Amino acid sequence: MQIAILGTSAVGPALGNALRAAGHQVTIGTRDPDQTKARERWAGVDLPLAAYQDIDAELFINATSGTGSLPALQAVGDALSGKVVIDISNPLDFSHGYPPSLFVSNTDSLAERLQRELPEARLVKMFNTMANEVMVNPGGIGDDSTVFVAGNDPGARQAAAALAADLGWTDVFDLGDLTAARGLEMYLPLWVRMFGQIGRPEFNIKVVR
Amino acid sequence: MQIAILGTSAVGPALGNALRAAGHQVTIGTRDPDQTKARERWAGVDLPLAAYQDIDAELFINATSGTGSLPALQAVGDALSGKVVIDISNPLDFSHGYPPSLFVSNTDSLAERLQRELPEARLVKMFNTMANEVMVNPGGIGDDSTVFVAGNDPGARQAAAALAADLGWTDVFDLGDLTAARGLEMYLPLWVRMFGQIGRPEFNIKVVR
Fold first, then answer.
1. Among the residues of A41-84, which ranges form H helices?
2. Looking at chain B, which terminus has fewer C-beta neighbours within 10 angstroms, N or C?
3. What does the alpha-carbon distance between residue A153 and residue A116 come to, in Å, rounded to a whole number?
4. B197, A189: Cβ pair inside 8 Å?
5. A144, A173, A190: residue with CB nearest B183
6. Most A CBs within 10 Å: which of B102, B147, B185, B186, as the mutation test of the A interface?
């Protein structure tokens, strides 16, 4: 499948390499490809880059920051219409330091905001509850664990779950419509706290049921 | 140990029975013992009752509702001074229907509010992330899972962890000071959503690390 991943932080390239290894064709979207290529941390990355406004794909993954998500998706624009858009972002607000708070929560979520602004996209919240090290190597933490999907379109949730399966995920928990993104994003403060106590990002939760 | 459990909903009696079976002496605190005894759902409960203002114990457990927690603890008053107070409550706001939102979150938590109002109590957030069926029977869901503790007093966290061990808990995750209660309470919307999808309360998360 042709997949476009928006975002050039650690998450985008990590997912891109793993999805390419799983047989997909991956392009990384960025605001300014020349600027991205000039960055030191891009030196070891071997994935094609395209500007947001030039990118197209069968499936999109938003791996930009919470504050950068809406501008990035709006820059991609009409190419998102009818497409599955997997949203990994979290509404983290670092303006008051660490640990971050959330800039939207409780009665709304970033994923719902994005879906409202992009009504033609088929948004699915997935992978926001773990570090990229776990996304691409679910077996690497020593036991099975859980990845969640939430979105208003059942077919889009299935497509996202299939992509997770390509990466080795065996427990994909379907939470139903996109209002579940509130809970998935509000889990982040607990994740951040656990990260501080564990001291490394290679952990995840398993829903025992 | 002499334990007082505040609250007469399902959680208080369930925990009371389990802690008594583990060898502790348990009293249930309530606003009006005569009114509680007259309730139909109290008929099968065989635990001593006392009014909040008359209760004392070596360790307290707050199993009242989120909105009822501060009045209940204030009614107990000076007896809480220096004592470990395990706070199971969640700041659930049902005023806009189901699913509930949280009436405090993100940059504060109910547990921190309670600790500020009762500075002499040694508050520990524990057990708020699961149903009482799991609290008292951690082995009953088919696999090990995790219970979290958070509180400003390390000795109080250890006392709470020891109580969890009495109930059969093998994975007690110490999250440090009480600001971690934000994450533990903000986990509730995800719990509520999972509850809806699973259709029964016998589930919990295991932190795979």
1. 69-76
2. N
3. 14
4. no
5. A190
6. B186
The pTM assigned to this predicted structure is: 0.97
Beta-carbon contacts below 8 Å between A and B: 113
Which residues of B are less than 8 Å from A143 in CB distance?
206, 208
Above pLDDT 70, what percent of chain B?
A: 100
B78-98: average pLDDT: 97
- Specify whether the CB–CB gap between A52 and A22 falls below 8 A: no
Specify the range with the lowest mean pLDDT, choosing from A9-23, A32-46, A156-170: A32-46
Q: Name which of A94, A145, A147, A206 to mutate to probe chain B: the one with the most chain B Cβ atoms within 10 A of its Cβ.
A: A206
Lowest mean pLDDT among A34-48, A68-82, B130-144: A34-48
Query: Cα–Cα distance between B40 and B34 in angstroms, integer?
Result: 12
List pLDDT tens digits, range A81-133: 999 999 999 999 999 999 999 999 999 999 999 999 999 999 999 999 999 99
CB B171 within 8 A of CB B145: yes
Contacts of A125 (CB under 8 A, 6+ apart): A86, A87, A109, A111, A148, A149, A150, A151, A178, A180, A181, A184, A185
